[in-house]
């Protein structure tokens, strides 16, 4: 995505605020939104964030006498891209672009009776250009110009004065390029038989320049052709740079993963990257997931809720069900449900619905009465008194 001729932001044009992608000079790999996906950490971060946000149920509510009441969703919140593109797929695709390019754009191809978008067909972000001229914004998509009323545009990572979001890939380009350049060099090394600087020494006699050149040519020909190089006991071969280069590659690649994770707001351990000094265990996994949801995904989820709420008439509003991500282990979940039943904030029928089970039948209730006695009540849970209060 590019932006032209938008001025008055600290004396700079908008395109100067977005760092240029490194070119291919000096051995660097050119970075685009597509080539960046060759970096496993970039792919891992984008996939994880898009997976989680796209699987949050999308619910529509309105307030009735101060109570939040769920209401039926319009078609655009069920199949926003038409019959073949349902909400989870649409959310995944749009979130993927938001996290790598800072923007997601679609064409509004249908409207409902309230003139609200009824169908939004997402477009490749690389085909989009945003122009601001004389205070008016225009979109050019695949060579065709559109009015803002015809375009659905969500953005994140915004700064004042820019009508587009900032691209994490653009700002992380140098880190991504370093990692991909290391990969490319290693592939060329092993594919082409390249050898780092080394020392081939005859330990038996002093060689003339002609003899040294002949030995070097024989050795290079054998290595380049994947052939065997046969010697007696009078030659030593020392690969001077190989060991150090290998260590440098590993260190650079390991650092690059953590660096990319910071750019894309995704903890390294959640994309299976080794993190020095950290320990994530089964016992603290729920707390870890909660931390990720609150610190990393929470702001993005809130922005998406605000944007999606524009697809329905006011005062209705969209909420993404964050609780769907906080799946606890069975023992902890059972404890939470029991506490809520004992404190009379949840009925047994609602608890059974949590496990997709129907309410208890009369026969089941009779069986419980035979086992535990008619009218038996569960033991209340005693809450810890709070300062200045009483147990609930």
Structural class: alpha+beta
The biggest beta sheet reads: 4 strands, mixed
User: Could you report the average pLDDT, rounded to the nearest whole number?
Assistant: 77
Proportion of strand residues: 15-25%
Number of strands: 12
**Tally of alpha and pi helices:** 11
Low-pLDDT stretches are 1-26, 240-245, 381-392
How do the helices and strands follow one another from N- to C-terminus? EHHEEHEEEEEEHHEHEHHEHHH
Radius of gyration: 31 Å
- Distance from N terminus to C terminus (CA atoms, Å) equals 56 Å
Helix content: 25-40%
Please name the defining characteristics of this protein.
single chain, 392 residues, alpha+beta, 3-stranded antiparallel beta sheet, 11 helices, 16% strand, flat, disordered N terminus, disordered C terminus
Written overview of the protein:
The chain is of the alpha+beta class and 392 residues long. Among the domains are: 32-167 and 241-327, no CATH class; 328-378, no CATH class. It has 11 helices and 12 strands. It has helices at residues 14-17, 40-54, 87-101, 168-171, 173-192, 209-224, 242-263, 285-309, 330-342, 348-354, 362-372; strands spanning 2-4, 58-64, 67-70, 103-111, 117-122, 128-133, 136-141, 144-146, 151-155, 199-202, 235-238, 317-320. The strands form 4 sheets. Strands 1-6-7-8 form a 4-stranded mixed sheet, with no helix packed on it. It has a 3-stranded antiparallel sheet with strand order 3-2-12. A 3-stranded antiparallel sheet has the order 5-4-9. Helix 5 (173-192) runs antiparallel to helix 7 (242-263). The protein is flat, with a radius of gyration of 31 Å. 18% of the residues are buried. Residues 1-26, 240-245 and 381-392 have low confidence and may be disordered.
């Amino acid at each position: 995505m590019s932006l032209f001729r938008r001025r008055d932001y600290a004396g700079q044009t908008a395109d100067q605020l977005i760092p240029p992608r490194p070119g291919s000079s000096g051995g660097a790999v050119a970075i685009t939104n597509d080539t960046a996906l060759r970096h496993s950490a970039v792919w891992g971060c984008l996939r994880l964030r898009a997976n989680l946000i796209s699987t949050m149920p999308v619910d529509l509510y309105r307030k009735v006498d101060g109570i939040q009441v769920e209401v039926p969703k319009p078609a655009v919140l069920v199949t926003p891209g038409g019959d073949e593109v349902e909400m989870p797929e649409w959310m995944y695709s749009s979130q993927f672009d938001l996290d790598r390019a800072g923007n997601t754009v679609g064409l509004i191809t249908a409207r409902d009776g309230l003139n609200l978008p009824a169908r939004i067909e997402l477009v490749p972000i690389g085909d989009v250009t945003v122009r601001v001229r004389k205070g008016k914004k225009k979109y050019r998509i695949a060579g065709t110009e559109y009015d803002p009323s015809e375009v659905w545009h969500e953005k994140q990572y915004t700064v004042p004065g820019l009508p587009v979001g900032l691209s994490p890939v653009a700002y992380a380009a140098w880190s991504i390029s370093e990692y991909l350049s290391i990969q490319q060099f290693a592939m060329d090394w092993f594919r082409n038989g390249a050898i780092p600087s080394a020392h081939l020494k005859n330990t038996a006699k002093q060689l003339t320049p002609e003899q040294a050149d002949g030995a070097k040519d024989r050795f290079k020909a054998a290595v380049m052709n994947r052939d065997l190089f046969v010697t007696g006991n009078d030659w030593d071969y020392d690969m001077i740079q190989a060991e150090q280069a290998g260590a440098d590659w590993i260190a650079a690649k390991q650092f690059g993963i953590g660096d990319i994770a910071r750019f894309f707001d995704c903890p390294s351990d959640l994309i299976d990257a080794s993190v020095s000094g950290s320990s994530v265990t089964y016992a603290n996994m729920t707390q870890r997931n909660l931390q990720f949801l609150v610190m990393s995904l929470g702001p993005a989820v809130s922005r998406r809720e605000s944007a999606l709420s524009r697809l329905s008439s006011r005062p209705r509003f969209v909420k993404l069900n964050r609780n769907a991500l906080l799946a606890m282990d069975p023992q902890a979940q059972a404890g939470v449900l029991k506490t809520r039943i004992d404190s009379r904030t949840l009925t047994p029928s609602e608890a059974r619905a949590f496990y997709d089970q129907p309410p208890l039948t009369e026969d089941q209730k009779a069986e419980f009465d035979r086992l535990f006695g008619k009218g038996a009540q569960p033991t209340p849970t005693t809450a810890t008194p709070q300062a200045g209060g009483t147990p609930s």
